[in-house]
Amino acid sequence: MPDSTAVPLPPAWFHLLLALTGGERHGYALMQAVAAESGGRVRRGPGTLDGALKRLLEVGLVEESGQRPDPAMDDERRRYYRLTPAGRRALRAEAVRHDRLVSLARAKHVLPPLSPRPRPA
After folding, report:
1. Cα 73 to Cα 56: distance, rounded to the nearest angstrom
2. Number of C-alpha atoms within 13 angstroms, CB side, residue 23?
3. Rounded (10°) angle between helices 11-20 and 27-37
4. Does the first or last residue of the chain, that is N or C, have fewer Cβ atoms within 10 Å of its Cβ?
């Protein structure tokens, strides 16, 4: 089994782990979160989602939650997922990798420099 904290992570994994930082979610809610957080630019279908979640479970980056919301308000077939500590570490490592790449792109004038933040009065 490969090191589950190795970067780079597949883009589908990165988006799913980011979506799980907001708390436990079921599959359909994950699809909606990824689409919303990406402004609709990234969409995961059920097949892609199921395959990615299966692998994330296998490598220990997510786990199924044993807790369920109110059964009267939820479909019992839904499976809920949450980040594991290893998942948080892998997500952070990947975010740091992206941050370094964006910093390099700014240094090479591929992207404009960040505007300075206004100082509080």
Report:
1. 27
2. 4
3. 100
4. C
